[in-house]
Design a protein that fits this description.
By secondary structure, the protein is mainly alpha-helical. It has two domains: 70 residues, Winged helix-like DNA-binding domain superfamily/Winged helix DNA-binding domain (Arc Repressor Mutant, subunit A), CATH 1.10.10; 163 residues, GntR ligand-binding domain-like (Four Helix Bundle (Hemerythrin (Met), subunit A)), CATH 1.20.120.530. The protein is built from twelve helices and two strands; from the N terminus they run αααββααααααααα. The chain has a two-stranded antiparallel sheet. The longest helix has 26 residues. The N and C termini lie far apart (47 Å).
Length: 254
């Protein structure tokens, strides 16, 4: 095979690995399968595989470290550090802007999840939902950040079940900011029994609609949940002129 033919095969290898990442088969931080397994899976030679991985390294899509091997790079790390993201994260107003965006994107991802979730997706959603409930049942034992992480993980499991890679990656690129809205709601609303009961009911409605494959109900439940949080936070702000805001910076959520 000539040089041009080898380059073409290497490009195809790179494209196949990229597709696995976009489709969520390979996730950020995950180690790539062994060279032997990849050669079998992709039906290529070792030299084509190595050249394909070299192309992906050049694009910043995979990283290779001594002793760790190759793994999927943090694709949103650079985006999270852009000047625009810094500006967003520094502005109190962003909290409400982001809740508007979440209401749109998460309503659609819930609708799609109700239509498209596989058995495995539903198992993961159930697991995340149960972990969130367990945190609610032991509020003193679990801090606000852990509550926020579990709440966020539940919403993320639903978005991943939408099987729309662009939607999933868009929500992931907003992940730090989104987590800060969840943290703001935990800080401000979980300590108020009426609001806490409302959030629990909304989560339950969203969960059951997705699990029972009811797309319109799932869409409505997600939208009402996010809009309910927005309205509750607005009320607090109007009453007290002060919200206990999340630390809306890009760090500290590891």
């Amino acid at each position: 095979m000539g040089t041009e033919g080898k380059a073409k095969v290497a490009d195809q290898v790179a494209e196949r690995v990229e597709r696995l990442i976009v489709e969520g088969v390979l996730k950020v931080g995950q180690a790539l399968p062994s060279e032997r397994r990849l050669v079998d899976k992709l039906g290529c030679s070792r030299s084509a595989l190595r050249e394909g991985l070299r192309i992906l390294r050049g694009r910043g899509i995979i990283d290779t470290e001594q002793g760790r091997g190759s793994f999927v790079a943090d694709l949103t790390g650079q985006a999270g550090a852009t000047p625009l993201m810094h500006l967003f994260s520094s502005q109190p107003r962003t909290l409400f802007d982001l809740l508007e965006v979440r209401a749109l994107l998460e309503a659609e991802s819930a609708r799609l999840a109700a239509l498209r979730a596989t058995e495995v997706d539903r198992l993961l959603i159930r697991r995340r939902y149960e972990e969130m409930l367990a945190a609610h049942e032991a509020p003193e034992a679990i801090d606000a950040r852990e509550h926020a992480r579990r709440d966020h993980a539940f919403h993320r499991a639903i978005s991943e079940a939408s099987h729309n890679p662009v939607l999933v990656h868009t929500l992931q690129s907003l992940s730090d900011l989104t987590l800060s809205t969840v943290f703001a709601s935990v800080n401000n609303l979980y300590c108020r029994p009426a609001q806490k009961r409302q959030i629990d009911r909304q989560h339950a409605r969203l969960y059951h609609a997705v699990m029972e494959q009811l797309p319109e109900q799932a869409q409505r439940a997600a939208r009402e949940h996010i809009n309910g949080i927005r309205d509750s936070l607005r009320e607090i702000e109007q009453e007290e002129q002060r919200l206990v805001r999340a630390t809306m910076r890009m760090d500290g959520w590891g």
